[in-house]
Amino acid sequence: MSKDVTVYTTNTCPYCVMVKKFLNEQGVAFKEVNVQENPAAGDKLVETTGQMGVPQIEISGEWVLGYDPETITQLLEK
């Protein structure tokens, strides 16, 4: 089953790189939104989640804050 996955990142975030590598290794297609290059998306992200940090991963409407492979896998398998 295909999930809608969006990863919110910045240019300087090592955990963002780790999340993208993990998703690629799992064969998960995702959309990347760089909030450093798109400040409006960053503002909307903070409004939505109340969190300023990245990476934030939205998986079919559910959120994961930070590099958390276990939670990401659980949401992908739901």
From TrEMBL:
Q: Which CDD domains match?
A: NrdH
Signal peptide as annotated in the record: none
Keywords assigned by UniProt, alphabetized: Disulfide bond, Redox-active center
What is the protein name given in its UniProt record? NrdH-redoxin
**What Pfam families does this protein map onto?**
Glutaredoxin (PF00462)
A GO MF annotation of the entry reads:
electron transfer activity
Tell me which domain of life the UniProt entry assigns to the organism this sequence originates from: Bacteria
What is a biological process (GO) this protein takes part in? cell redox homeostasis
Q: Where is the Glutaredoxin domain?
A: 5-64
> Could you tell me which InterPro entries the record lists for this protein?
GLR_AS, GlrX_YruB, Glutaredoxin, Glutaredoxin_subgr, Grx-like_ET, Thioredoxin-like_sf
